[in-house]
Amino acid sequence: MRARLCALGDVLRDVVVANRDAGLAMSTVEGKTTADTIYGIDRVADEALVAWFERHWPDVLVVSEGLEAPVAVGTPRCTVIVDTIDGTRGLMYDKRSAWVLAAVAPLGGRSGDVVAAAMTEIPTTKQWAADQFSATRGDAAQGRAVHAERLDVRSGRRAPLTVRPSQATTLEHGWASFARFFPPAKVLVAAFEERLWHELYGEVPEDLAVFDDQYVSTGGQLAELLVGHDRMLGDVRPLAFAELGLASAVTCHPYDICTALLLEEAGGVVTDPWGDPLDVPLDTTTAVAWVGYANPRLAALLGPAVRAAAEATFPGAHRG
After folding, report:
1. Which residues have CB under 8 Å from 192's CB, separation 6+?
2. What pLDDT does residue 40 have?
3. Contacts 24+ apart (CB under 8 A), 183-187
4. Counting C-beta atoms within 10 Å of the first and last residue's C-beta, which end of the chain has fewer, N or C?
């Protein structure tokens, strides 16, 4: 299953790159679904998705934001959830890589039931390298590392990569941030972060060096944690939107966070803002609040402060 998810990622990456290089109008708005806006670049990937499953994996239920409803290919034995392009907005303006995200679970399973996952980088035009990460649940327990490769898009050559999240035990002089990509609820999310710093430090030092990075891609954020760049990342926008009554705001959905297994198998931690394991349906509409930590020590140190800040900032939010 892991290898199939990687093969799917390879095909969708190549489809997107080929269409981009052929002059596709990537930022044209093609439509909207209940999950998100669909741009020109999304359309070409979505069109390739079901056709690939029909040829290569004909016994699955395919869930993806570009599909109006889940698609049964053959007689489904499992569910595969896919984000064909996570990070569309950055990629379509050639600012930053996007990612193909895919995960497989037993038919009707939830996020905690995912048994394998893969994420495949879609590079910007000036990049020669595109990474791919994949894992099967239980790899770490068997002493197996996350599978990681770097593709040279010029030659097609692949080379192994070493995946190691940061082993730092503090945030100082490191990267940590929460998603506030769009104007809705930006002020309330910032208030949550301010409370978090006070929970952690009391009177926040004027020279506190914790760096902020707004990577508009949940998969991209997981990649930053995987390779050791960032120490804590998360998304509490669903809590902020609920607090403000913004039911239709664009937010994180299960397909965005479907590859959380990779960080867990690499030794990181992924929870909801209350510190509980993520447990959401594998659909395209559920809003998902999450926090990722590079290692268990950071999770133990920071998790209680994240929970306290969430409870104080979003008193109307419901757990689970």
Report:
1. 178, 236, 239, 240, 309, 310, 313, 314
2. 74
3. 184/241, 184/244, 184/246, 184/249, 185/237, 185/240, 185/241, 185/243, 185/244, 185/246, 185/249
4. C
Look up tokens 């867990």; give the residue.
264
Beta strands 210-211; 147-152: pairing state? unpaired
Q: For residue 311, how many C-alpha atoms fall within 13 Å in the half-sphere facing its CB?
A: 9
Using one digit for the tens of pLDDT, what is the confidence trace for 21-31?
887 766 777 66
Any idea what DSSP says for residue 172? T
Residues of the chain with CATH 3.40.190.80: 174-313
Look over the chain and give the mean of its residue pLDDT values, rounded to a whole number: 93
Q: For residue 140, with 0-12 CB atoms within 10 Å meaning exposed, 13-18 middle and 19 or more buried, which class applies? A: middle
DSSP code of residue 1: -
Q: Backbone dihedral region of 103: left (phi > 0), alpha (psi from -120 to 50 degrees) or beta?
A: beta
* Cα–Cα distance, 177 to 150 (Å, whole number): 26
Domain with CATH 3.30.540.10 in the chain: 2-160
Residue 38 has pLDDT above 90, yes or no: no
Provide the β-strand partners of residue 233. Answer: 177, 292
pLDDT at 1: 94
pLDDT of residue 41: 79
pLDDT band at 70 (very low <50, low <70, confident <90, very high): very high
Q: Which residues are within 8 A (CB) of 145 and not within 5 positions of it... i.e. 6 or more apart?
A: 139, 162, 163, 266
- pLDDT tens digit sequence for 124-134: 999 999 999 99
Q: Return the CATH number of the domain spanning residue range 174-313.
A: 3.40.190.80
Superfamily of domain 2-160: Fructose-1,6-Bisphosphatase, subunit A, domain 1 (3.30.540.10)
